[in-house]
Q: What sequence folds into this?
C-alpha cells in the first residue's frame, strides 16, 4: 500500500524570514481571503495539504520552507525517518587499568580541525550539523532551499528588458486551446471569446437563407447545424469561465433572463487569470488581424441576411408547423379556379425543395399548370428575366416563381395570394393587387 503524507503548519515562521512577507507569499499560493489566512496563522494545527505521494510531499516541503514556513510532514519522509532512527554512537571503551590499580590520567584527545570543518549550517534556521540533506532542526531540504534562494536572487537582478517580454513563455504556446472543436479542456481569453462570437453569428446568418429557400431538407439541415453552433457557443462560454478561474457550470448563468446579459458582459470584459490555474496555462491572445477578419465575416453574414427582407421571404405558411390555414386556402383557391380560363406557369429549380412541394400540392388539388426548370432551360430563364424586368422586380428572388394569368408572383406565393389573381376575382381587381 502506498504511503501518503500530509503537510502540517502550526503558525511558525523560520528564522531569518519576515512574517509579513511570508504571510503574503502564502496568501498568493493559496489564493485565500485575509480571514482564512488569519486562521492558518492562529498557531493551531492546520493541514495545508494531504494525501500526497512522497515526491509531492518533498515538492511542497521545499516550496513552503522556501517562502519561510516551518512545516511538518506526517508521516515523516523516508530520509527524515532514517535520520531520526539512527542509533546513538557507542560510548568509548574504558581505558585499561595499570597493574597497580591506579588509573593514569589520560588527557582528552583534541578534536581534529577537519572534523570541525565537516559541519554545515542550515540556510533557513542556522543550525550547525554534520553534512546531510534534511535539516535536523527545521526538516527543510537544505540543497533545494539553497537552490531556490539563488533562483529568487537571480530573478531580482534580471534586466528590465526581460520583464517587458511576453508573459507567456514559448513552452506554453503549444498548449493553446483550439478555436474550433467541442472539447472542454483549456481556457479562452477575451479576444478568443469575441472571435468565436463573431464567427458563430456569421454562421447563423448564413444558415437562415438555407433554411428558408431549400424547403424541408433545408430546415432539417439548418436545425442540425444550428444545434452544433449552440453547443460550440456553450463551449466558448465554458472555456471563458475557466480563464476566469470558475467552473464551466457558471456559463449556465448566460441563459437566465437579465442575469444572462450581465453574465455575457462579464465574460466579454473581465480579464482572465494571468498565471496557470486548474485548467491550464493562459491562452495566447488572438491577433488583431484574426479578430478583424472574424468581424468582417460577421458583417458579411449580416449583409447576406439583410437582403432577404420580409417581402422577399417565402410565405411562412409553407414552413413546417405553420400550415394551420392550408385547408381553408385550398378551398378558397378552388372556389375561384377555372381550369379552362386560368393559365398558371411555374418557374422552378431542380434543386428547390419548395418547388417540389408546390408541384405536389397542385397535382393533389388537380390544378393544371406548366412548369419550366430555369436551371436547365435557358430560353425559359430568358423569358422569366424579361417578365421580372417589366414587372420591376429586383433583388433576391426565391423560387418557385408563379405566373398567374400574366401576373408574375415571386417567392413561392401562397394559395391565398394566387387566388387574388384568378379570373374569378375579375381582371381589374387583380391588377389593383
A:
Amino acid at each position: 500500500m502506498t504511503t501518503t503524507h500530509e503537510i502540517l503548519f502550526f503558525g511558525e515562521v523560520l528564522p531569518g524570514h519576515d512574517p509579513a512577507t511570508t504571510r503574503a507569499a502564502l496568501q498568493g499560493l493559496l489564493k485565500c481571503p485575509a480571514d482564512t489566512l488569519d486562521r492558518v496563522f492562529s498557531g493551531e494545527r492546520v493541514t495545508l495539504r494531504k494525501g500526497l505521494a512522497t515526491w509531492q510531499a518533498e515538492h511542497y516541503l521545499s516550496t513552503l520552507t522556501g517562502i519561510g514556513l516551518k512545516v511538518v510532514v506526517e508521516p515523516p519522509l523516508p530520509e527524515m525517518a532514517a535520520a531520526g532512527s539512527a542509533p546513538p554512537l557507542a560510548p568509548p571503551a574504558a581505558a585499561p587499568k595499570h597493574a597497580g590499580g591506579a588509573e593514569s590520567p589520560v588527557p582528552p584527545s583534541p578534536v581534529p580541525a577537519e572534523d570541525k570543518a565537516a559541519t554545515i549550517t542550515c540556510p533557513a534556521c542556522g543550525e550547525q550539523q554534520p553534512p546531510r540533506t534534511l535539516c535536523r532542526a527545521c526538516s527543510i531540504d537544505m540543497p533545494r532551499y539553497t537552490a531556490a534562494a539563488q533562483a529568487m536572487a537571480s530573478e531580482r537582478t534580471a534586466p528590465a528588458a526581460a520583464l517587458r517580454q511576453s508573459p507567456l513563455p514559448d513552452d506554453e504556446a503549444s498548449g493553446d486551446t483550439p478555436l474550433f472543436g467541442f472539447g472542454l479542456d483549456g481556457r479562452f481569453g477575451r479576444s478568443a471569446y469575441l472571435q468565436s462570437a463573431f464567427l458563430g453569428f456569421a454562421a447563423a446568418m448564413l444558415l437562415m437563407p438555407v433554411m428558408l429557400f431549400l424547403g424541408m431538407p433545408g430546415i432539417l439541415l439548418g436545425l442540425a447545424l444550428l444545434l452544433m453552433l449552440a453547443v460550440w457557443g456553450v463551449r466558448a462560454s465554458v472555456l471563458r469561465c475557466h480563464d476566469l478561474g470558475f467552473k464551466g457550470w457558471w456559463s449556465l448563468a448566460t441563459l437566465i433572463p437579465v442575469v444572462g446579459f450581465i453574465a455575457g458582459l462579464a465574460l466579454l470584459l473581465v480579464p482572465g487569470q494571468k498565471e496557470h490555474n486548474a485548467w491550464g496555462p493562459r491562452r495566447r491572445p488572438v491577433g488583431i488581424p484574426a479578430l478583424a477578419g472574424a468581424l468582417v465575416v460577421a458583417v458579411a453574414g449580416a449583409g447576406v441576411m439583410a437582403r432577404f427582407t420580409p417581402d422577399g421571404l417565402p410565405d411562412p405558411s409553407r414552413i413546417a408547423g405553420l400550415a394551420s390555414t392550408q385547408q381553408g386556402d385550398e378551398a378558397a383557391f378552388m372556389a375561384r379556379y377555372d381550369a379552362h380560363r386560368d393559365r398558371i406557369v411555374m418557374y422552378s429549380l431542380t434543386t428547390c425543395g419548395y418547388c417540389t412541394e408546390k408541384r405536389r400540392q397542385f397535382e393533389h388539388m388537380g390544378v393544371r399548370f406548366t412548369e419550366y426548370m430555369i436551371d436547365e432551360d435557358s430560353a425559359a430563364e430568358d423569358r422569366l428575366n424579361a417578365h421580372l424586368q417589366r414587372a420591376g422586380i429586383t433583388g433576391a428572388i426565391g423560387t418557385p416563381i408563379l405566373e398567374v394569368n400574366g401576373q408574375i408572383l415571386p417567392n413561392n406565393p401562397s394559395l391565398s395570394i394566387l387566388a387574388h389573381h384568378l379570373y374569378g376575382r375579375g381582371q381589374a381587381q387583380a391588377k389593383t393587387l
In short: The beta strands are 5-13, 46-52, 69-74, 120-121, 128-129, 344-348, 370-373, 401-404, 407-409. The chain has three domains: 1-83+117-158, 190-306, 316-432.
